[in-house]
Amino acid sequence: MTENTASTENSGTNESTGTAELERLTAAATAAAPIWRTSDAATRAGWLRALADALDAHADELVEIADRETRLGQVRLRGEVGRTTGQLRLFATVVEEGSYLELTVDDADPSATPPRPELRRLLVGIGPVAVFSASNFPFAFSVCGGDTASALAAGNPVIVKAHSGHPDLSRRTAEVAIAALRDAGAPAGSLALVTGRAAGNALVQHPAIQAAGFTGSLSGGRALFDLAAGRPDPIPFYGELGSVNPVVLTPAAVTARGDALATGLVGSFTLGVGQFCTKPGVVFVPAGAGFEDAVGAAVAGAAGGPLLTERITEAFPSGIRSLLDDASVEVLASGAETADGARPVVLTTDAAAVAARTDVLLEEVFGPVTLLVRYSSEDELHAALRAVPGSLTATLHSEAGDEVAGTLELLQARAGRVLFAGWPTGVAVTWSQQHGGPWPATTSLHTSVGATAIRRFLRPVAFQDAPATLLPAPLRDESLARLPHRRNGILVTP
């Protein structure tokens, strides 16, 4: 196995990468790290664009493999390839623009009390990063997804742990990516792939790895988080673990556009067969407003479909049964029968039950199910909202004139992104995006989507009274003349 092929030891299987191979890959990543960290903006951006171009060039082949392994459909998967290559190109522009470096200079001031030395500060890549692929986004949160793109953009090699739900796609994507980086002039060891749970556990504990990114289950993510924290040298673990994504509908909103809201909700919670991390899983609705009837009518024709993995398929009905074991929960309506997959389900309960039994009623169920929670007063709604765990998103549908300040404050405290129109499924990859939230949505407050995802894989270094020739290139005056920075407290934008 050479440096320029995807290393899985057992291509097309889920058997674990061995210890010797893992040592070889981490050694190669360690050797590549200084080259990535000190690469200039044009070079690093070129590597990212070369990777995006290669994935686009192999899209037909990769989508065919992905559809075979995930059954997500070619339309969805082609769109996901576009999102994946788009975010790689976004990070190329982030690298070129330069503000992510947070360049900061304080000039020496001998007259200060005490006298002040010259200080120059920037952010630098932390070193090799482990990335754990997700099942529900085989491109955008996988081998070359957002975690990998942001870690590379920060100047770090990446070792990806393939997801068992799409091993052939992971292997082939890694082969394409490694070849593209090699041909663009990136060092050997820039990107590698390992397979198997044992290799993943060993990877996050390996002393060469300086941070890890993960998207997956609460139990799996918590186990890896604990391994990362339990190392002799603990490392940051950026996990996206679970989210019920609360939605609040005011009585005025239901009166004004109840049917449209019902249709939108059904479209959102069934999108991707309910396997989006931003699925609206719990929806607070005014009692007696007729919204439940509208949702029941809208979901009747909604189709389900096959779920991603056998494990998810088995967990879906048991998750619904767990909710129905609570005396307050009833089935409102179900979607159309499907021969080979999950059928959409809408459940109902009340706000008092949610406030009393949060651990049962607000457990995330992965798949096409949502829970409508009836509330009869603002006090009842707020008591239930205080029990909602941290989420990636929160949505408020209200009308002009609604007094919603208290509700908004509770939603904002529980989510990283607050929506006032539309539905939370679908995440724009932009400079301002926030895809993270309080535990258990994520293990940190950083985003895993958008330009500022790069911040997870950087660390600050300050240089005091350094000779200009020994400063990192971005901190030298000739570079500062063309890069955004702060000097003596004043923001400078050349």
What can you tell me about this protein's structure?
Strand 13, helix 15 and strand 14 form a beta-alpha-beta unit. Strands 10-11-12-9-8-13-14 form a seven-stranded mixed beta sheet, sandwiched between helices. Helices cover about 40% and strands about 15% of the residues. The protein has two domains: about 250 residues, Aldehyde Dehydrogenase, Chain A, domain 1 (3-Layer(aba) Sandwich); about 170 residues, Aldehyde Dehydrogenase, Chain A, domain 2 (3-Layer(aba) Sandwich). The protein is α/β, with parallel strands linked by helices and about 500 residues long.
Which short descriptors sum up this protein?
494 residues; alpha/beta; Aldehyde Dehydrogenase, Chain A, domain 1; Aldehyde Dehydrogenase, Chain A, domain 2; 7-stranded mixed β-sheet; 5-stranded mixed β-sheet; 16 helices
Name the CATH superfamily assignment of the largest domain: Aldehyde Dehydrogenase, Chain A, domain 1
Query: Which structural class best describes the helix and strand composition?
Result: alpha/beta
Please write the CATH class name of the largest domain. Alpha Beta
Largest sheet: spatial strand order: 10-11-12-9-8-13-14
**How many beta-strand segments?**
17
Total count of domains: 2
Helix content: 25-40%
Low-confidence stretches: 1-13
Total of DSSP H or I helical runs spanning 4+ residues: 16
Radius of gyration: 24 Å
